Amino acid sequence: MYKLGLIGHPIGHSLSPWIHNQLMDQQGIEGKYELLDIHPDEFDEKMKALKQKDLHGFNVTVPYKEKVIPYLDVLDKSAEQLGAVNTVKKTESGWVGYNTDGQGFVHSLRARFPDLFEKGKKALLLGSGGAARGIYEALSRTELDTVDVANRTMIRAEELINQIPVNSQAAAITLEQAMHSVGEYDLVVQTTTVGMSPDINNTILSLEHLTKGTVVSDIVYRPMKTKFLEEAEKRGARLHYGHEMLLQQAVYAFQIWTDTVPEALPLLEKFEQKLKGV
């Protein structure tokens, strides 16, 4: 009987329980996945209490992907390098932290747009938080030549690039610079929570200079088509949705917890129907 969960704040909107219940059904595994909403003022107290719970593992979402690290006993190589964790497994050695964000993102992106991963292609990441770190590292180890990072405060983008050694070229730019140069990129990835429900009318920057055919991705999955993606679509972009990454990174997390090999593709259509309220 697996006992799993998600920590973050706020997380009442999360569909992670639905995903992992589907994966348990698929693999014939009994278990329970619960939401563990922790207010920032209670984080230390709640994390210490969580150590005493009989959990097999849990996911970590905003704003705790970096803050959770001091409470872990071991980090796998990727999580240590990234300084961000989205999956924790209880082992004989204690709590072990992993990061499946980047792996899940690239897998879902490559499945939809294999032509994107050719020599000479350029990517732009918007944001430099916990999710951005995993995506940046994973994209920078693909065939892409350039992965630039834009952030409101450029020093945060510079820190991300300097802390994570990668194979591709990289530069830190401001969001204003990104707005004017967005047409130079083959892939644009929105990695922040801007545009997430209930603030669905917000967008991180204008896409008026976007080039037709650019792949535009938004890791926000509620709403499924954010205002950012709506603007991209109007300008002829090819869209990559946040729920595709969410599903694939969940599959990798589930694999870590259960040592099984679940499949994401059979759940994708059901997940999209769930998001649309069908």
Automatic annotation (TrEMBL):
GO terms for molecular function: NADP binding; shikimate 3-dehydrogenase (NADP+) activity. Shikimate binds at S14, L15, S16, T61, N86, D101, Y221, Q249. CDD domains: NAD_bind_Shikimate_DH (cd01065). It holds the Pfam family SDH_C. The keyword Transcription does not apply. NADP(+) binds at G127, S128, G129, G130, A131, N151, R152, T153, M154, I155, R156, I219, G242. It catalyses: shikimate + NADP(+) = 3-dehydroshikimate + NADPH + H(+). The active site is at K65. Keywords: Amino-acid biosynthesis, Aromatic amino acid biosynthesis, NADP, Oxidoreductase. Its EC number is 1.1.1.25. It comes from the Bacteria. One of its GO terms (biological process) is chorismate biosynthetic process. Residues 242-262 form the SDH C-terminal domain. Pathway: Metabolic intermediate biosynthesis; chorismate biosynthesis; chorismate from D-erythrose 4-phosphate and phosphoenolpyruvate: step 4/7. It is an enzyme of class 1 (oxidoreductase). GO terms for cellular component: cytosol. Residues 119-193 form the Quinate/shikimate 5-dehydrogenase/glutamyl-tRNA reductase domain. Residues 6-88 form the Shikimate dehydrogenase substrate binding N-terminal domain. Homodimer. Belongs to the shikimate dehydrogenase family. PANTHER family: BIFUNCTIONAL 3-DEHYDROQUINATE DEHYDRATASE_SHIKIMATE DEHYDROGENASE, CHLOROPLASTIC, SHIKIMATE DEHYDROGENASE. Involved in the biosynthesis of the chorismate, which leads to the biosynthesis of aromatic amino acids. Catalyzes the reversible NADPH linked reduction of 3-dehydroshikimate (DHSA) to yield shikimate (SA). HAMAP family: Shikimate_DH_AroE. This is Shikimate dehydrogenase (NADP(+)). The lineage of its organism: Bacteria, Bacillati, Bacillota, Bacilli, Bacillales.
